[in-house]
Amino acid sequence: MESIEQINYLKCPVATVYQALTSQSGLGQIWTKKLKVKAELGFLNEFDFDEGYITKFRIVELIENRKIIWECVESDPEWIGTKVSFELNEKDSVTQVTLNHYEWRARTDFYRWCSYNWAILLHRLKAYCEA
To answer: How many domains does the chain divide into?
Structure first.
């Protein structure tokens, strides 16, 4: 199994980052404006990237200001069954965000492209939360 791992450091409180990653308004600013999101265990977050299908992630873990885990249940076939986690740690007014997209079946070109795009998402998250 393959895993994509990215990290970034944001100069803002952890609560700001958690809110951005669990709310319609936050994810709408950093990922896609076409979405249905709710910070509720078991909820199916929906993201539309205009690719002919809706990407759906079930929320499987929510620990406020600490951890978010989604499981992909509908999307590109390479994503189905994978999980995405966001681990948050604040120290000295800086929040460390570790993103892990894991349980990939193979390291493909799509996998590599997604790694690039996760880095972009973390860059947008930083800009949004620090603004």
So the answer is: 1
